[in-house]
Amino acid sequence: MKDYKRIYVCHTFYHAYIACLKELNRDKGDWGEADLMLSSMSNDFGNLKERAERSGLFSRVIVFDEKEESFFPELAALRRDTGSLVKNMIQRIRFTRRLGKLLEPYIPVDFSRYEDIYVFCDSDPIGYYLATHRIYYHAVEDGLDCIRYYDTARFDNRGHFGLKAWMAAHNLIFIQNGYSKYCLDMEVNDISALAYPCPKYVEKPRRELTERLGSREKRILVSVFIENREELEETFAAGCEDEHRVLVLTEPLCDLETRKRIFHDIIEEYQMVEGKRARVLLKPHPRDVLDYRGLFPGCIVLDGRFPMEILNLVEGLVFDRVVSVFTVPDAILFAREKVFLGEDFMDKYEAPEIHRQNEQIY
């Protein structure tokens, strides 16, 4: 019998959102059994920890000082291409073990004491740690249908993928998204949308998690991610009632100058609705550091530190159009039109081969 029930290892606001949804879909008697772990490696969660603690959904909310591989200079030598497949594989075996060991001092919990461990984005160092220490876990897709658009496991391991997958299944090296020996299963939203099978894929549609929410559950969810709901609703209400509104979802694309040009072009292209200039709102990605308020003073810039799906729960909110580049908009329910720009659009700003990962996975 383990000491703790569940823990969710999250790297983004979206991950924490899905963790909350999974707990809200349990019996209310189970609320407060799980722990929530927030990795500070690539995301500033602000005061999400305090709000999540007040929600009653979690027993503990733990900050995880996860370290990128670049934090450990000694690993660089194990990443160099020797020109030999055999030598590269030997180096990779050593890299896998070494990264897993180096992360030990930064792990804030004893994972062996949990019945179930859920890891979002196990390609990060936490995946290496769990594999090195032979700890079983459940992987959860990084974003909605993200493997459909970018199969990181296959792209990162293109060339002799079958051999590498076999080595990962025997815990010689580590591969994310369902290929590690110690990954029990990999939750995905829609298996039918994925081009390449993996025996550990388990379909768990995200829509089902939101459809089961009652009014109390929705209030709890909003309270976790929106610090000042009244202020947000006032922002959406700004302007005339019959005014058209367009929401642009930003992303940390390219360098800052190119990013500035990308979103300038998007605003110019999509701000007209039915022949009229719409009010444009920008929802920055949590890792996007571009100064949108300074660059686009005519737009309303929202706080970037919440998952866009939370806007589905703001009563009466409707946009004429939502525009995204790589963010999958399928979960958005508050837009009359959803525009997903994708690879063809980005070909104007970067070399096209950068956006054709799934065409190179072998």
Please, could you describe this protein's structure?
By secondary structure, the chain is α/β, with parallel strands linked by helices. It is globular, with a radius of gyration of 21 Å. The chain has a seven-stranded parallel beta sheet, with helices on both faces. Strands 12-11-8-13-14 form a five-stranded parallel beta sheet, with helices on one face. It has a two-stranded antiparallel sheet with strand order 9-10. The mean pLDDT is 92. 31% of the residues lie in helices and 19% in strands.
Task: Please provide a brief summary of the model.
This protein is α/β, with parallel strands linked by helices and 362 residues long.
Indicate the topology.
Blueprint: E1 4-10, H1 13-24, E2 34-39, H2 48-54, E3 58-64, H3 85-102, E4 114-120, H4 125-132, E5 137-140, H5 146-149, H6 152-156, H7 161-169, E6 183-188, E7 201-203, H8 206-211, H9 215-225, H10 229-237, E8 245-249, H11 256-270, E9 272-273, E10 276-277, E11 279-283, H12 292-295, E12 300-301, E13 319-324, E14 335-340, H13 342-346
Parallel strand pairs: 1-2, 1-4, 2-3, 4-5, 5-6, 6-7, 8-11, 8-13, 11-12, 13-14
Antiparallel strand pairs: 9-10
Helix pairs in contact: 3-4
Radius of gyration: 21 Å
Q: What fraction, in percent, of the residue positions are helical?
A: 25-40%
Distance separating the two termini: 43 Å
What's the pLDDT, averaged over the residues? 92
Shape: globular
Catalogue the unreliable spans: none
Structural class: alpha/beta
Q: What is the strand content?
A: 15-25%
Largest β-sheet summary: 7 strands, parallel
